[in-house]
Amino acid sequence: MSVIEEAVYTHLKTDANVAALVGTRIYPLVAPQDAAYPLLVYQRISTPRVRSHSGPSGLAYPRIQITCAADQYDVTRSLANTVRASMDGFKGLLGSLVDVGAVFAENEIDEYEDQSKAFTIRLDMVIWHKET
Question: What angle do CA 47, 50, 54 make, to 5 degrees?
Answer without folding.
Answer: 140
